[in-house]
């Protein structure tokens, strides 16, 4: 009696299952709760995200970086600090150096090197 019930339960399960060709794991875009199932996002690295107010958040990021800082809004800074940051960011062009001239050199002292 118990064996026949077990067999009938197995038959019901076999009927409710989809055929083997329609596998539920054939697509990488299925939902995942425990971990990611896609090979494209296979390796994520730990990252420390630093906000402008100094708070930090630990994330998983696709590139191996240690710290990522959020950009600072220059409109919220005081005028002096904003100018100092702009000066550091856009430094002045280096001044052109004057070329050396041969006016102050006595060429007779080097005359011995010209003759063979």
List the helices and strands and how they pair.
Blueprint: H1 2-16, E1 45-50, E2 56-61, E3 67-69, H2 79-89
Parallel strand pairs: 1-3
Antiparallel strand pairs: 1-2
Characteristic key phrases:
alpha+beta; elongated; single chain; 116 residues; 3 strands
Low-confidence stretches: none
Strands ordered across the widest β-sheet: 2-1-3
End-to-end separation in angstroms reads 122 Å
Residue-averaged pLDDT: 76
Structural summary, described in words:
With 116 residues, the chain is α+β, with helices and mostly antiparallel strands. The chain is 22% helix and 13% strand. The chain has two helices and three strands; from the N terminus they run αβββα. The chain has helices at 2-16, 79-89; strands at 45-50, 56-61, 67-69. A three-stranded mixed β-sheet has the order 2-1-3, with no helix packed on it. A hairpin with a 5-residue loop joins strand 1 (45-50) and strand 2 (56-61). It is elongated, with a radius of gyration of 37 Å.
Summarize the structure.
By secondary structure, this protein is of the alpha+beta class. The termini are far apart.
């Amino acid at each position: 009696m118990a064996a026949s019930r077990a067999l009938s339960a197995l038959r019901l399960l076999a009927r409710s299952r989809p055929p083997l060709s329609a596998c539920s794991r054939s697509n990488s875009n299925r939902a995942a709760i425990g971990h990611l199932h896609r090979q494209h996002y296979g390796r994520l690295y730990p990252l420390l995200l630093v906000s402008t107010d100094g708070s930090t958040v630990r994330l998983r990021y696709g590139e191996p970086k240690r710290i990522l800082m959020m950009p600072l809004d220059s409109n919220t800074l005081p005028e002096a600090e904003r100018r100092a940051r702009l000066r550091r960011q856009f430094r002045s062009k280096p001044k052109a150096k004057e070329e050396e001239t041969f006016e102050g050199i006595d060429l007779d002292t080097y005359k011995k090197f010209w003759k063979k």
